[in-house]
Write a structure and sequence with these properties.
Distance between the termini of chain A: 41 Å
Number of strands of chain B: 11
Largest sheet of chain A: 6 strands, mixed
Order of helices and strands of chain A: EEEEEEEEEEE
Shape of chain A: globular
Largest interface: A-B, 22 and 20 residues
Oligomer: heterodimer
Radius of gyration of chain A: 13 Å
Structural class of chain B: mainly beta
Order of helices and strands of chain B: EEEEEEEEEEE
C-alpha cells in the first residue's frame, strides 16, 4: 500500500525566513497531493493542493512542488509569520486511498 | 468552516465499555470519514461512508464499527473500548469524491480509555 514519509518532524525558523517541508510517496498511482494545517487544538484545514498533471502551484506565500519521477512533493512557505506556527500534514491520494504523512510541527521564532 | 459537529467533544470511559461518537453535517456531503489522530502516526482512516447505509473499512478498522442511516449523521462505535483506542477522533466530509478533493474536518473528539 501507499507509504508517505514526511520530514522534518519539527522545524523552527526565524520570522521572515522561509520554511520547507518535504514528503515522499511510494505508489506511482497517486495523483492528488493535499497539504493540511492544524493549529493547536484545532481541526486540520486544507491550505493548498496539487494534482499530478501540475508541477508547481502557488497561493500567496505558500507554494507546493511535485516531482512525479522522484515521487516527492514539498511545501514552501516564504516570509514566515507567527500565525504560520502549526502542524502541517502532507497526504497522497490514489483515488482509492488517501494516506497522510506523520506531520511537521513548525515553530516561527519572533 | 463546513457545518460539521462532533459529539461528545471529550469523553473519559473505562476499558470494556461501549462508546459512540457522533458526527453531524449540514453540508449534504455524500462522503464521510472517521479518522484517529495519534502522535507519530498522523491521521489514520478508520471507516468511511460513500452514501446512506454504504460504508467501508479503512486502515485501522479493527475494534470499530460505523453506521450511516441519514446523509447528515455518521456514527462511530467502539463496542468494547480498550486503552489503545485512547485518541483524538476526527470526522471529515467531502463532496468531490473519495479522496479527490478537500476534506472538511469536525472539531475532534478526545477519547480517554482508562
Amino acid at each position: 500500500g501507499e507509504n508517505v514519509e514526511q520530514h522534518p518532524s519539527t522545524l523552527s525558523v526565524q520570522e521572515g525566513d522561509s520554511a520547507v517541508i518535504k514528503c515522499t510517496y511510494s505508489d506511482s498511482a497517486s495523483n492528488y497531493f493535499p497539504w493540511y494545517k492544524q493549529e493547536l487544538g484545532k481541526r486540520p484545514q486544507l491550505i493548498i493542493d496539487i494534482r499530478s498533471n501540475v508541477g508547481e502551484k502557488k497561493d500567496q506565500r505558500i507554494a507546493v512542488t511535485l516531482n512525479k519521477t522522484a515521487k516527492h512533493f514539498s511545501l514552501h512557505i516564504t516570509e514566515t509569520q507567527p500565525e504560520d506556527s502549526a502542524v502541517y500534514f502532507c497526504a497522497a491520494s490514489t483515488n482509492e486511498k488517501l494516506t497522510f504523512g506523520t506531520g511537521t510541527r513548525l515553530t516561527i521564532i519572533p | 468552516d463546513a457545518g460539521i459537529t462532533q459529539s461528545p467533544r471529550h469523553k473519559v470511559t473505562e476499558t470494556g465499555t461501549p462508546v459512540t461518537l457522533r458526527c453531524h453535517q449540514t453540508e449534504n456531503h455524500r462522503y464521510m470519514y472517521w479518522y484517529r489522530q495519534d502522535p507519530g502516526h498522523g491521521l489514520r482512516l478508520i471507516h468511511y461512508s460513500y452514501g446512506v447505509k454504504d460504508t467501508d473499512k479503512g486502515e485501522v478498522s479493527d475494534g470499530y464499527s460505523v453506521s450511516r442511516s441519514k446523509t447528515e449523521d455518521f456514527l462511530l462505535t467502539l463496542e468494547s473500548a480498550t486503552s489503545s483506542q485512547t485518541s483524538v477522533y476526527f470526522c471529515a466530509t467531502d463532496d468531490a469524491g473519495v479522496y479527490t478533493g478537500e476534506l472538511f474536518f469536525g472539531e475532534g473528539s478526545r477519547l480517554t480509555v482508562l
